[in-house]
Amino acid sequence: MQNTRAWVRLPSGKRLDLLNPTPFDWDDEDLALGLARTYRWGGHSAWPLPLSVAQHSVAVMLLRRQLSKNKLSPVQELRELLHDAEEGLLGFDCISVLKPFMGEGFKQLSARLEHAVFLRYGLPSWQADDKTEHKRADRIAAASEALHIVGWSKEEIRQTLKIRFQPLAEDVLAAHYGDTPWEPWAPEKARSRFLEMLNELKSRL
User: Is the pLDDT of residue 2 over 80?
Assistant: First the structure.
């Protein structure tokens, strides 16, 4: 098992071993592109395009900033932006309720990738308070996506998806960028905007 490798060749030319990742195995462009081409909700959408993890990540960061009682540090905001970064390296966003069925191996794989991301960008581990507030923003984003992007009703979000947070009426991304509310971004736009936000937050560290 120690000799098993799962190599991915990235657009930069770098090679990432998904089973034994290091913080030096990708560049920011690789990550941004991977997240822009990885889709939430199983790739399903009521719009012409599905919702990328890159777009979701930017939304959660902006929402966390908006909901926070205290001004977030650049490190906190960067950790929000990168909270699903391992999915961009893996190229797969597993639907939450399926994760237990994927087994302990998948859980460990995801944890190793997340650890490599945190090391790469100098992010501290989640503390209890920050994790709680992150989960709140993430679940509010999920409820809003379910309603406005995928097409679930509010009742279905509560009863079927078991999300207890109310969907937002206003799109935090539309307020920030001036886009059509709730419209999924094309991959190139998602890549570019995620990378722009990543570079902005890194410059403030």
Answer: no
